[in-house]
Task: structure prediction
Amino acid sequence: MYAALWRALPGPWPVRLAIVLALLVLTAYLLIFHVYPWVMQTFFPTPDPTFAGSDRRSSAIA
Amino acid sequence: MAASDARARRSARPRRRATVSSVLGELLLTAGVLALGYAGWQVWLSDAVLGEQQQQAARAFAAELVPGAPAVADASAALRTDEPPVEDRAADRESFAVMHIPRLDEFERVVGEGTSRAVLDSLEQGLAHYRESAMPGGLGNFAVAGHRNGQGGPFTHLDEMRIGDRIYVQTASAWHVYAFRNHEYVPPTAVGVVAPVPQMPHVPADGRYLTLTTCNPEWSAAGRLIAYATWVGWQSAEDGMPLELAATLGRA
Result:
């Protein structure tokens, strides 16, 4: 799969390497600032810092 | 010549066919790298990334809280210790204040009403006001919860507060100034920390307190870390940011 991607890139190997590095940087940027934040907010709630029973109405939401 | 040699050598090498299992293997490796990346991100980068978003949101919210107020108060606007203006109750999930804690590194966060996940996990807010506790500057206890880690983790370093550290609560009508007094480590059942007089649930309000609650130890809900502060005074919101805070932040 990645070998096919490497062959599909244009130019001699230094150009391909530069393109691959640019793609890696772009992927990392998207992961760090968009994908991972979404994953955390959607699937990994952090422990509740409040007190059980201190706020009855909102504990139903939590 | 050299280029054609290289091409000849490359084509001479037998090209391995991509099989179902080789593609599957590469996909699994990729998934592993992404998952490890997430784990590392959550531990080392999440609070910087999400916290920065909350910080920016707080800055924008604070800027339009009092239209026309000067950015920084002049020297004539001193801290007042008379009766502060009464703050109106906010609607559920409504943003109504910005908290500034210089000890937590230029910390600015929006306080939303009610300790729901919607407020605690919000990238626009992050700090959640206990609905039944007093409003900022009010007689009793202004109690606020925030995550220790994750979802912006506003209170990661709450354990580093030192006696006398200022906590500024900015609303549409006033800047309420509190001074940090002490920490307390309690179990998650210690509801008394948000009582009008902290830990004295049967005593009627006798002063103006501020209580911050967060998780302890880090990444765990096994206990709670509490930071108490007492009211020092207030300044009108029309005056702009108190000079003392502006000086601390280097904005004076």
